[in-house]
Amino acid sequence: NLLEVWASNAYRTDVLPISGDFNVNGGIHRPCHLIITGQDCITPLFYASPGVFIHQENISRETAGINVETHLSLKNKKQGLKLKTTIADASNKIVASNETGISGDIVRQPIQVERPVLWEGKKNPYLYTVTVELYDGNQLVDRMVQRTGFRYFSVDHEKGFFLNGNYLNLYGFCRHEDAVGRASALLPEDYKMDMELIKESGATAMRLAHYPHAEPMYDLSDENGIILWTEIPMCGPGGQAFTGLVDTEGFKVNARLAVKELVYQKFNHPSICFWGICNEILVSDGKRFVEYDNPIPFIKELNGLYKSIDTSRLTALATCVDQSYYLGCSDLIAWNKYFGWYK
């Protein structure tokens, strides 16, 4: 067998980001490995996700109602295949389970956890372990393990953010993947150091700017109770027209794919409360911002795409100008202000 991998950092007019005020580093800058499965398996091919999605449908302090959705790759379609899903608490005690016969490529298993310990942010970032096992008769043929925390949240436009019914003041950082001498090819100690600095500051939240970050930072946020806003690399300064050379249709295809990959790959992390659509994309107003186009219809399309995949989280975008065009494009808007930065 011959496996050949090509990596390039050449400028592309059909790949996000088109522009931005941060380094865009190329190459294979995160760990990679070879996945070997049997012919029947929990699929590793669904947008490079774990193939297991833990839907939190009815969470309270009395009960956690979840639905575990598992995507399978089945070559034989034979009888006798079954899926066993167990939920273990932090002490590794099994608190709920479901065993289901397989009749198709997608299996959904409703499970109830009575009197759950909720994921309370920094106060108590309690995590459960969800183990999904594929059996052929009594023979285990594949397994996927995911950690998650049970929580519910809401945002009120006057009162702020609420986690499990309690007000939580969100403040913190925008974080980029960058380390001296390594750029974005971070080592485990780099992620840990960043998290220790975030905790030391007293921050409660973090925006992973302006692209999907590596898995260790999501895991550390789960473990330490940091609320996350994570986003695709759709960045300003403005739509597609500003740079003049954008492959508009290719750009849109790549953006749609980026949304699907982000949501499906990071779906089970309890720390994620906000899906980000874009950052500081300007809109032509015919006066000051004449050189820009109108990205609003596509931003609204991406908002709808997020919502079609995951109804449990809120969408957000950030803008640096006082324009009203963005109203209705997302659940939340961050108004970036740079007082004293520019003269």
Briefly characterize the structure:
This protein is of the alpha/beta class and 343 residues long.
Salient structural properties:
343 residues; alpha/beta; Immunoglobulin-like; 4 helices; six-stranded parallel beta sheet; single chain; TIM Barrel; four-stranded antiparallel beta sheet
Would you write up a description of this structure?
The protein has four helices and 17 strands. The protein is an alpha/beta fold. The strands form four sheets. The chain has a six-stranded parallel β-sheet with strand order 12-13-14-15-16-17. The radius of gyration is 21 Å and the shape is globular.
The description of the largest β-sheet is: 6 strands, parallel
CATH level-two architecture of the largest domain: Alpha-Beta Barrel
Number of DSSP helical runs: 4
Q: Taking Cα atoms only, what radius of gyration do you get, to the nearest Å?
A: 21 Å
Order of helices and strands: EEEEEEEEEEEEHEHEHEHEE
Question: Structural class, please?
Answer: alpha/beta
CATH class wording of the largest domain: Alpha Beta
State the helicity in percent bands.
Answer: 10-25%
Low-pLDDT residue intervals, each spanning 5 or more residues: none
3D shape: globular
> Strand order, biggest sheet?
12-13-14-15-16-17
CATH topology name of the largest domain, in short, is TIM Barrel
- The number of strands is 17
| Domain tally | 2
At the fourth level of CATH, the homologous superfamily of the largest domain is Glycosidases
End-to-end Cα distance, whole Å, is: 60 Å
Compute the average pLDDT.
Answer: 92
Proportion of beta-strand residues: 25-35%
